[in-house]
Amino acid sequence: MDIEKEIEVKILVSDYDFYEVCDMLGITSETTFIIQTNNYYDTSTDFLKEKQIHLRSRVIEEQNSYQLTIKTPQKDGLIEINEKIDKKKLDYLNETGKLPLGELESFIGFIPDKLVLLASLTTHRYQFDFDGGILFLDINYYNGLQDYEIEFEGKSFEHCHWVLDNLMSELELNFEYSTVSKRQRAISSLKKI
């Protein structure tokens, strides 16, 4: 089990602005983006949400990579706990609505109801080290929608804002910070269908 503190800031941008940033950073159509699918779970009674726990599985088929993650808010970021699993355990979760035996299941403890899939979101992601942190360039697809997101994970919120402010001002692009997570966007888009 991998436990880390996640401090990140993100902005949603237009497709034009996204590709302007890509061009500035030397990312071309030849650049390989990793394709990952996030599946978000809770019970029908929002058991995890009430405990301020968000559960997701992440699948990167090209790398035969499967991971369960829980995120829970802290004063200055999120605590993210990751557990690598295999496809068999992911299938067990999807078929039974129960967490497979493992470290996350032990950490969360008893869940009184079946877990249900709330939403899925597929991301085409390019990430790299940048200005003392990690810059993520994401194209997200969910429920017939597509958005473009630039995310920076750094040492502090101030550091994250400083990096993104400088990056966007260098291109003279207007932007607003987003506090709406991928999970929230995917789930809320279902309510509009």
Give me a quick take on this structure:
The chain has 193 residues and is an alpha+beta fold.
Helix run count: 6
How would you name the CATH homologous superfamily?
A: Hypothetical Protein Pfu-838710-001
Class by SSE composition: alpha+beta
Q: Overall pLDDT, averaged?
A: 94
Judging by the overall fold, what is the CATH architecture? Answer: Beta Barrel
Instruction: State the strand order across the main sheet.
Output: 1-6-5-4-3-7-8-9-2-10
CATH class: Mainly Beta
Number of spatially distinct domains: 1
The proportion of residues in beta strands is: 35-45%
**Largest sheet at a glance?**
10 strands, antiparallel
Write the layout of secondary structure elements.
Layout: E1 2-6, E2 8-13, H1 15-24, E3 34-43, H2 47-50, E4 54-60, E5 65-74, E6 77-85, H3 87-96, H4 103-108, E7 115-130, E8 133-142, E9 145-153, H5 157-170, E10 177-178, H6 182-192
Antiparallel strand pairs: 1-6, 2-9, 2-10, 3-4, 3-7, 4-5, 5-6, 7-8, 8-9
What does it look like?
It is a single chain. Helix content is 28%, strand content 44%. With 193 residues, it is of the alpha+beta class. The protein has a single domain, classed as Hypothetical Protein Pfu-838710-001, CATH 2.40.320. It has a ten-stranded antiparallel sheet. A hairpin with a 4-residue loop joins strand 4 (54-60) and strand 5 (65-74). The radius of gyration is 17 Å and the shape is globular.
Keywords:
Hypothetical Protein Pfu-838710-001, 28% helix, 193 residues, 10-stranded antiparallel β-sheet, alpha+beta, 6 helices
